[in-house]
Amino acid sequence: MNGDTVRTGDGDTMPTGDGDMGGEIRRLEGDAMSAESGRLEGNAVSGEPGAVPGEGVRDGTGPWGDAFASGGSTPPGDGATGEDAPLPRNDTLFRDDAVPLGRGGPAEGDAVMRAASGGDASAVGGGAADARVVAARGGAEARGDGSGARGDRPADRELLGRVFLARVLEPGDETGGRWVRERGVQEVVRRLREGGRALPGVSQKRWAGLCARADRADPGRDLAVARSAGARFVTPGTAEWPGQLDDLGDARPLGLWVRGGPSLRMWALRSVAVVGARACTEYGAHMAATLAAGLAERGWVVVSGGAYGIDGAAHRGALGAGGATAAVLACGVDRPYPPGHTALITRIAEQGLVVGELPPGDHPTPSRFILRNRVIAALTRGTVVVEAAYRSGSLVTARAARRLGRHVMGVPGPATSALSAGVHELLRADAVLVGDADEVVELVGDMGELPPERRGPVLPTDLLEPRTRQVLSGLPGRGTATAAEVARRAQTSEDDAIARLYELRALGYVERHGDGWKLTRQTMISVRGGRNPC
Length: 534
Fold this sequence. Notes:
single chain
């Protein structure tokens, strides 16, 4: 012992035990490097003099390289304190801008889950001690459920709380919406989990039922199931949330489950709802498909409910035109309903969006269909009802659209058709009659989006000079007439009538028979086919 010392990370000194080592070894950014032997002392990787600094850490060939490179625990050593030797940070797995499910794609959370389960402790980026802490927690912060929500950030707690409430509260529950608005998501979640005294606005029986639901709610499981189905949970206040849904007030959804790649917010900005009867006629299906195809060709998103009848025809029309369409379901987005439209809804999810309020696995009920319609009305700029009886659920969508200040339109049907009776009632009130996509766009589009001028067909006689057309109308439909008779009927002079009759003869409208004039056969057919009294 000759008094040579090594300075530790705390500023103390300790003998090195090596009489040949001279000078004091100082720490360089957390790695205790020996000035003469190059020993990496902080991680105790170099167990013998002359070890190359860092060898075995990067390629897994050192004394502890196999365990360290495979994601195992940090090798033993006096310096394994988390700040002695910072481990290589994996910025690909742990990005500072990583967003949880609902604000990004379905692949978030993989790195967090792997690090939390001990699969790659070196990727944590906070040193060996930090890696052991995260791994020991077993994913409590990283959640390990594939959701990507760590639970330790306000945004993550808000996300998990809303997923929890979406499982407990029914869609459109204004009482629950008022609780969230007045008390906040976390307070409502806490009260439901604890049970106890009921929140204001509900009876004790209903409160007991909500608490029973809360006991079974598992937001982590719901997020994992949704992620496996390719869905995400979009919440108010995030970039993808459509602001027009806020018009629903306390009945606003707690969040929306979304399948599909496009942004829900961007698509909702230029969208139109096409709804109607399930038991529709061929006329109704044709009109719905034609309207949807026309809207899709003009760059509008067609929104409907994915049901049989008018809804299915509207979706198929938009898809057939190569356009965009979105289906708003009254069940979990991982459970296509009706079953007969499984292929259609799957195709919509691949090319467009499938949206729903209910958590994964939930089934539809009659009341949920009715409440779903308010989301369709709020998402879109206007609602077109193609066919609807007096008790049709599509009339609920139209009334909700009217309350929210959206445009309400209707496609008329036969006056004797019971399936169009509900539409006719809307038209008698304040709905606007439309017959094609141009008329819809005129209402819901931006300023200047006007339909083309509409007029009937142009007949050859429409191109004649008015005085000449008046002389032509002076000829009888059958038989001949003299020039004097034609002049009297056309209220002109005989000379002017003769001049114009010869002009009409040159154009092939009349022919002369002796002293009389008569219409040619082709003129008589043309006049009868499109007679327009002058």
